[in-house]
Write a structure and sequence with these properties.
Keywords: Membrane, Transmembrane, Transmembrane helix, Transport. The structure is a single chain. The chain has about 300 residues and is mainly α. A 3-stranded mixed beta sheet has the order 1-2-3. The protein starts with a helix and ends in a 17-residue tail after the last strand. Helix content is about 65%, strand content about 10%.
């Protein structure tokens, strides 16, 4: 099984457990902050399911209808997850305002503190696992899921702290106030996720640091070509697509040029996994000596 799909399954199972636990305890206590955490985990469960289904589809090879693969499905799922999180945050804040206006009274505060502590612990370890797999596979869908769970860790700790203060001081209004803070944190996370997931959908180029590494790899073979230009890059899920035009001396044999291009492609793919590199070869048409031998000054 694909490591990304397996990690998504772990997220689905952990979120399912936490939704049931938080919702039961939140309703038992009458705590809007604990119920808001249950809703948050419920949206995370939906997001984890979306990530699981999208990763399973994104891992499929290219076909006749999707000749560049299915990588962008990951980005679509990331945008959907961000929208769901934003909706959940608005709902939480509306409910918190209602609770502030109507008054709050909690039962079994200690039980709520215990559940929030357990939730924070589970989400911490699952998020670390998802982040490690996301980094190894460069998966935006898994990274989005890990970001959700990381946010859950802090919100759960925040609710736990609020419940602790209620237990110590008896100030019930701290419960909806804690829920409003949770909502604000979730909104912030949703905006960050939307930006990261959306940019590849409009074919934004790779980050400057990654393009510089690609250029450095190409320039490592500068003794065998004249210059290169029209370097383009984009990302689809965990896949990178890179293409460029390479100008070579007009008397260079096609076998030599082909072998050089293979080496450039292999080196780029070794540095960036799941890369697709396309090199368009052009013979040098100038009358300068560089077209018969090579030159050392290359341009992007």
């Amino acid at each position: 099984m694909d490591a990304r799909v397996k990690a998504a399954q772990v997220s689905v199972m952990s979120n399912s457990l936490l939704v049931v636990l938080k919702l039961f305890v939140g309703l038992w206590m009458g705590s809007v902050s604990v119920i808001s955490e249950a809703i948050h985990s419920g949206l995370d469960l939906v997001a984890a399911l979306i990530a699981f289904l999208s990763l399973r589809q994104a891992s499929q090879p290219a076909d006749d209808q999707h000749q560049f693969g299915h990588g962008k499905i990951e980005n679509v799922s990331g945008v959907l997850e961000a929208i769901l999180i934003f909706i959940a945050a608005i709902w939480i804040m509306v409910e918190a305002v209602k609770k502030l206006m109507s008054g709050a009274h909690l039962e079994s505060v200690g039980l709520g503190i215990l559940v929030m502590g357990i939730a924070a612990l589970i989400n911490f370890f699952v998020a670390r696992y998802l982040f490690s797999v996301a980094k190894a596979t460069d998966s935006i869908a898994l990274k989005a899921d890990a970001l959700h769970l990381s946010t859950d860790v802090f919100t759960s700790l925040g609710v736990m702290a609020g419940l602790g203060l209620i237990k110590l001081t008896g100030i019930q209004v701290l419960d909806p106030l804690a829920a409003m803070i949770v909502g604000c944190l979730i909104i912030k996370a949703s905006f960050a996720l939307t930006k990261e997931a959306l940019l590849p959908l409009i074919d934004t180029k790779l980050p400057e640091a990654e393009e510089k590494e690609i250029i450095d790899i190409i320039r490592g073979y500068q003794q065998d070509f004249v210059e290169f230009h029209k370097l383009r890059s984009r990302k689809a899920g965990s896949e990178r697509h890179i293409d460029l035009h390479l100008v070579v001396p007009r008397d260079k044999h096609v076998r030599e040029v082909h072998a050089m291009c293979d080496q450039i492609e292999l080196e780029i793919k070794h540095r960036f996994a799941s890369s697709h590199v396309l090199i368009h070869i052009e013979p040098c048409e100038s009358d300068c000596d560089a077209c018969k031998t090579t030159c050392t000054e290359n341009e992007k």
